[in-house]
């Protein structure tokens, strides 16, 4: 949602009912509804982007994937809001007639309608149809607010009960990306360091920086940069092939901006599958180095408990962070 987008204003009846909740629940609900409205704004912007511009097939796939991820977040936030709003219901609601949707579902519709009004008002200066729609949209908002307040009143009084809030939505998370990407001619050599916690990855990368002039980069940083550039909600939810393509794209940008740099290091390899895909894309320019150190040494280096290091190890090993890649050997 853009910075100047409108805030979501809840109707007075719902606002008064929320004020009866404990402070902790009020704060949780306010935070959740604010995030829900923000996600709806981002959804609107992304849907506009995929419809309104000439995009490549890869860009369209990215936008569609982001829409799926935002919709998943939207439904999760609505369920979280319903967990709080459900406490407004009277204890005798079991015998009351069932309403067709939850309170958070109505709040979500109010959020979307608020955004529709705002976008229509912005377009009214240049679009006659949009200008004529604005009064009707305001009328719809008044009716929706009145209906929501009436529902809140019935729920609080036990005259109406609410459905189970779980939505059980499924959204695709692993679409194959059609784009092809090749290494920049300036990307001469890359060393990727992998291994368990405190095994010496950062120390090794720093040694190469000091002795060989290598440019140190973090894989997480590269993925976040790529996600920001591509407008993606969660790069780790993409296929391993797409993650590798995003990593190579960012490496190419750094190499093109630092043409005198002959060596880049990346850390830390977080799974064997994505680094194998990157190896396929880069080929012999990429060398993957897995480091090892005894558990006792790694615990001492960490400054934390053995249990904390063991827990990190389990997570990393479950992702294949210590395995050789399934692509050509390094």
Q: Can you describe this structure?
A:
This protein has 330 residues and is mainly alpha-helical. Helices cover 58% and strands 5% of the residues. The chain contains 11 helices and 4 strands; from the N terminus they run H-H-H-H-H-E-H-E-H-H-E-H-E-H-H. It has a 4-stranded parallel beta sheet with strand order 2-3-1-4, with helices on both faces. Helix 1 (12-18) packs across helix 5 (128-157) and helix 3 packs across helix 4 (103-123).
Main traits of this protein?
330 residues; mainly alpha; four-stranded parallel β-sheet; 11 helices; 4 strands
Summarize the main sheet.
Answer: 4 strands, parallel
Distance between the termini: 44 Å
Q: Tell me how many strands there are.
A: 4
**Biggest sheet: strands side by side, in what order?**
2-3-1-4
What proportion strand?
5-15%
The sequence of SSEs as H and E is HHHHHEHEHHEHEHH
Helical content band: 55-70%
Please summarize what this structure is.
The chain is mainly alpha-helical.
Layout of secondary structure:
Elements: H1 12-18, H2 23-52, H3 57-85, H4 103-123, H5 128-157, E1 190-194, H6 201-212, E2 215-218, H7 219-230, H8 240-257, E3 264-267, H9 272-282, E4 286-290, H10 295-302, H11 306-318
Parallel strand pairs: 1-3, 1-4, 2-3
Helix pairs in contact: 1-5, 2-3, 2-4, 3-4, 4-5, 7-8, 8-9
